[in-house]
Amino acid sequence: MEGSEVGNQQESNKDKETTEHVASPTETLEQVIRQKKEKDITKVIVQFRAIGNAPILKQKLFKITASQKFQAVTIFLRKELNYGASDPLFMYINSAFAPAPDEIISNLYKSFGTDGFLVINYCTTAAWG
To answer: How buried is 15 (Cβ within 10 angstroms: 0-12 exposed, 13-18 middle, 19+ buried)?
Structure first.
């Protein structure tokens, strides 16, 4: 009977190892999800870069509320540059594309942020499509 007890004990140990091994990744996933929720972005650091003959800002980094739409960034930059609504101003993310005015800043940052910044290039004539 001792042999069967040892066999049962080994099977029991294998079950425990399997159960413990499966539980660890699940806990890790839950921890990652919890940390992501805790790190929800409230402000995004935006870096403005002038292109071509656009005026250069004295201060290039600004904190902008992440829940705002890109239209708010456009209004803010126009105010900083003393541009009117009729003055041409083109804005691009990472020198690549012009986001829609209703895009949320946090979504743009999560998708296209680099080195902790959302880089926005601006110019007075169309540069990229």
So the answer is: exposed
The residues facing 121 across adjacent strands are 49, 92
Which tokens belong to 104?
């949320």
In terms of Cα–Cα distance, which of 121, 96, 128, 127 is closest to 46?
A: 121
51-99 tens-digit pLDDT: 988 999 999 999 999 999 999 999 999 999 999 989 999 999 998 899 9
d(CA 44, CA 106): 7
Residues 47 and 16 in one domain: no
Domain check: are 47 and 63 in the same one? yes
Q: Is residue 44 helix, strand or coil?
A: strand
Contact, 70 vs 99, CB < 8 A? yes
